[in-house]
Amino acid sequence: MTGGLKDSIPEEEYIQAPFIRKQGNIYKPNNKDMDNDSILEKTEIDVHTKEIDLVNRDPKHVNDDVVKVEFEDVIAEPAGTYSFDGVWKASFTTFTVTKYWCYRLLTALVGIPLALVWGIFFAILSFLHIWAVVPCVKSYLIEIQFVSRVYSICVHTFFDPLFESMGKCLSNIRLSTTKEV
If both were cysteines, with which of 28, 109, 137, 171 could 24 make a disulfide (CB 3.0 to 4.6 Å apart)? Predict the structure, then answer.
């Protein structure tokens, strides 16, 4: 038993297509063709071993408007109040290098623990949504159908005849306005 598709059984008979990785995992990123015989078959993406993009680290542009702080955004000298050119260059270099290395140091020290915390948080949030919120909402919708039917019966039994008779009684009332000069 190899776990692959058999030639005699078409793919449509499977409930779910067998898992075939499009590309190699993170341990062998250059292994593009894992199985040459199964390239044309349906594939699923394994989210736990997908390759991450080390060049574009914000592909969904989550932080486009938040953390773009450059030297010119923070420190600016108006015309007529310039410092020495060497001081300006040294402060630019100091600001840029300090920001770069402080960020790298903070992410090295705090990034992995915070990734663990956020992973646990979103796992709990997903768990609660899947196993608590959605079943409660579905239960509520099932239970509220009974109330809806009882309400509908009460409206049709008591209020429909009342409003129909009131409409017939008041339908012959005519208002006319005249303007006296």
Answer: 28
What distance in Å separates the CA atoms of residue 177 and residue 181, rounded to the nearest whole number? 13
Single-letter amino acid code for the residue at 103? Y
State pLDDT tens for residues 106-146: 999 999 999 999 999 999 999 999 999 999 999 999 999 99
DSSP-assigned states of every residue in 86-131:
HHHHHHHHHHHHHHHHHHHHHIIIIIHHHHHHHHHHHHHHHHHIII
Structure tokens at 17: 């297509």
**pLDDT of 76:** 84
- Give the burial string for 136-156 (b: 16+ CB within 10 Å, else e): eeeeeeeeeeeeeeeeeeeee
Q: What is the rounded distance in angstroms from the CA atom of residue 150 to the CA atom of residue 145? A: 9
Residue 65 pLDDT:
75
Q: What is the pTM of this model?
A: 0.48
Q: Is 62 exposed, middle or buried (0-12, 13-18, 19+ CB in 10 A)?
A: exposed
Alpha-carbon gap, residue 51 to 27, rounded angstroms: 9
